[in-house]
Amino acid sequence: MTKDDRNQIYRECFEALGIKQFELARLMALGEVSKSTRNKVSEKLKGTDRGVTKETALAIQLLVFIQQSGIDIKEFEFDENGRLNIDNILRKDSMADIQLHMTFDQAKAVSLGLEIFTRLGLGQLEYLEEHIESGVIPRANQEHIEDDGIQTLLEAIRNLLGYAPGASHGMNSHVVDVNVKRAFEIKRVLDRAMKVQTGESSGKVVNDPLPVRFTIDELPTATATNSKV
Fold this sequence. Notes:
Layout: H1 3-17, H2 21-28, H3 35-46, H4 54-68, H5 86-93, H6 104-121, H7 127-134, H8 150-160, H9 178-198, E1 205-206, E2 222-223
Antiparallel strand pairs: 1-2
């Protein structure tokens, strides 16, 4: 690993975090912000600093991991001795609890919406064409059904975003927004509940952990009532 490698890690992670230099300086300095700490961040991003240490490269990658796991790092608070107040973070994360009851048809609509959002969040823009053809995304002129270059346009957008043909992000990528990962997990739980409802799967309460998790959120639950099993 070279100095350039560590500098590249630092710059890429800063972009992935989507925060201001001031906020990164506060986090890296354990809550203390000064002109000196801000300058260090700026110099590292410009490459004019003596270099990013292995410890700093690890720390900023962990910040990306934490944020992509669903915790807002901008809410991190430190005491006067530089210790992170973990309790406050966990307390804020566990305050909200929302329950939603819906019909089977409503659940299918929600699942479809989560599917579209998830695929777009992974860069799978070509998925839109399927829903244009199905009518989920309507045309202004319903009689206009000939090939109007939609596929070509979507491929052009993908090219502008830097995607190679047929390529997209994986769900575990650090550049995938945490809300996309949440949508994926919610959809998996909701879909499992609908399978219970139709008799495709056994078990009334569907709250088993997913085989693979992409967030550290509490796993949502979905209950199938009046199931056919």
